[in-house]
Amino acid sequence: MYRTHTCGALRIEDKGKEVTLAGWVQTVRKFGSITFVDLRDRYGITQLLFNESLNARLDETPLGREYVIQVKGTVIERSNKNAKIPTGDIEIEVMDFAIMNIASVPPFTIEEDTDGGDELRMKYRYLDLRRPTLKRNLELRYKVNRAVRNYLDTQGFWDIETPFLIKSTPEGARDFIVPSRMNEGQFYALPQSPQTFKQLLMVSGYDKYYQIVKCFRDEDLRADRQPEFTQVDCEMSFVEQEDILQTFEGLFKHVFYDVKGVEMKEQFPRMTWDDAMWNYGNDKPDIRFEMKLQNLKAEGKVHAEVLNQVDFKVFAEAETILAICIPGASEYTRKQLDELTEWVKRPQIGMSGVVNVKCNADGTYKSSVDKFFNEDQLKSLASFCNATTGDLILILAGKETRTRKAMSELRLEMGNRLGFRDPSVYKPLWVIDFPLFEHDEEENRWVARHHPFTSPKPEHIALMNDLSRYAEIKANAYDIVLNGTEIGGGSIRIYQRDLQEKMFAALGMDKEEAQEKFGFLLGAFEYGAPPHGGIAFGFDRLCALLGGQETIRDFIAFPKNNAGRDVMLDAPSAVDKKQLDELSLEQKIG
Ligand code: ASP
Predict the structure, then answer these.
(1) pLDDT at site 390
(2) 3-state DSSP percent of the chain in helix, strand and coil, to 5
(3) pLDDT surpassing 90 at residue 106
(4) Which of 92, 173, 243, 549 is the most exposed, having the fewest neighbouring CB atoms within 10 Å of its CB?
(5) 439 and 411 in one domain?
(6) What's the longest Cα–Cα distance across the chain?
(7) pLDDT at residue 15, rounded to an integer
(8) Separation of 414 CA from ligand 1 center, angstroms?
(9) 547 within ligand 1 shell (Cβ under 6 A)
């Protein structure tokens, strides 16, 4: 038997027991004739005490960091207790030990805080995973996984696997493709999600499906994206949007309670996409704080009457003018305001400046546009913005899309600065009634906002005949948002062949192309497809949020770096010419 206990198991009640432990040497500390060793495994750390009698053996075979050893000894009470660890009241007086494997000196310290940089730790990920931080994250991930499965099991869902070698399905991103040796010149694609398969399972009658599944998207990796990531993918039949929202709100609440002990009793608030954009400037509002956008002018339409009375070119020419009120910030100094101006000028925000209006404690107003606004006009501007004494109003003006996005970023930034975004407060939100289409400016065409299988609201189907009204068409599509992060999304699907064909046509696909790409789905819709809908959650992101952290990479055992590389495996990498020949592929470069 390798061990009687783990390194996290023994307590003062075990005093006097003879035990055998096995694990990794974290530290070796020699004090005169005695040596202390911290022995680590997945479960914790136990202190070992090597007495004088073992000195000769320790001299002969010294212990090094990360050696794997086995010790036999007696549990004794520690004179110098360590309240920080659960085993801190005891230590093992070692009687005998064996080195099971030696180790090279690790390239960084394997403790809570490490001296290793990111790349180095990625290269030696198996060592980094020994650190308590990552261990806690992976434990949490396991618990979230278990909670999801338990809940869906009680609701009657079946976990059904779907293939990874498939045909390209457009979900907005680029596919990873895999050449087929047996079918010369042809390629599989890795799934961006199991979308069409889960719909086909509904056609087969498996009316409650789920899978915790890898998805692959060949996107440029913006911060904190992974080319392969995990989704909790779900689909149900004979459901309306309300059924889906109820079921998955239940899942969410269960996971929060099970994993974090957080009880979410109230129904999650719901907000339409229009309201989210109007009030927060984005479709995933952080509702831990208010500070809503004030639409002084939007898409060229003036809403704050006072703007018609002033002669200020910047405002007159702007398509959109938005404001937010920062509570208690009227005393911002010149320096602080200059710094905010620099902040909005950063390329990521891209504005040329920010106008400020101070609502002073004495009832007066002071602004950076005093030349154009008199006191009364500032007052009426403040009143339009619902500003109160002590507020600082910040105003951005410019093109609709950019200004709205910039203001939404500024709102979040001010929320951070004012401490309104406490990670221990959880505010989930459903955003509903998304537009069906989105205009792709680069390609100058309409694309599906969610994906092409999403159903328009029945009352909007008629608008699909009129290109000029595409922007008005709303879908039965929804996202779940937590603290300003989208963690899941889904929709009620199209399940009739003619409507699906109409949708493909609206996206610029002719009948032949639709048949070639999606013949299997269109065909299936002819054999009794039930009404259905579903949702998918970003599992890595959900875990990171539950762990109170921002980077999903820390919640994945073996992640890729920002360039999509696995630096431990050194992948992607070149392949042998022989492999290429077998695939009838020729390499152009390298
Ligand atoms: N397949 C969708 C996605 O990956 C989710 C869904 O509609 O269920 O975003």
Answers:
(1) 95
(2) 30, 25, 40
(3) yes
(4) 243
(5) no
(6) 93
(7) 98
(8) 32
(9) no
SS3 call for 497: helix
Structure tokens at 503: 């949708």
Arithmetic mean of pLDDT, 560-577: 94
Token readout for 465 is 């005949």
Choose one of 385, 417, 449: the last residue of a domain. Answer: 417
Let me know if residue 96 belongs to a domain: yes
Burial class (CB in 10 A: 0-12, 13-18, 19+), 186: exposed
Nearest CA to ligand 1 atom 7: 490
Q: How many domains does the chain have?
A: 3
Contacts of 167 (CB under 8 A, 6+ apart): 188, 189, 517
Query: Tens of pLDDT along 481-524?
Result: 999 999 999 999 999 999 999 999 999 999 999 999 999 999 99
Q: Which of 175, 213, 231 to mutate to test ligand 1, by most ligand atoms within 8 A of the CB atom? A: 231
Question: Going along 349-432, which residue ranges are E strands?
Answer: 355-359, 365-367, 392-398, 428-432
Instruction: Point out the domain boundary residue: 101, 119, 153.
Output: 101
Closest atom of ligand 1 to CA, residue 491:
7
Which pLDDT band, with edges at 50, 70 and 90, does 27 fall under?
very high
Q: What is the pLDDT of residue 590?
A: 57
CA angle, corner 202, sides to 198 and 203, nearest 5?
Answer: 115
C-alpha 376, offset from chain centre:
46
- Mean pLDDT computed over every residue of the chain: 95
**pLDDT at residue 170 in the model:** 61
User: Residue 171 pLDDT more than 70?
Assistant: no
Task: Find out whether 494 and 534 touch, Cβ atoms under 8 Å.
Answer: no
Q: Domain limits at 263?
A: 135-271+430-556
Long-range contact pairs involving 308-313 (C-beta distance under 8 Å, separation at least 24): 309/377, 310/372, 310/373, 310/377, 311/372, 312/369, 312/372, 312/373
* Residue 20 reports pLDDT greater than 80: yes
Question: What's the CA-to-centroid distance between 195 and ligand 1, angstroms?
Answer: 6
Position of tokens 């959900």? 542
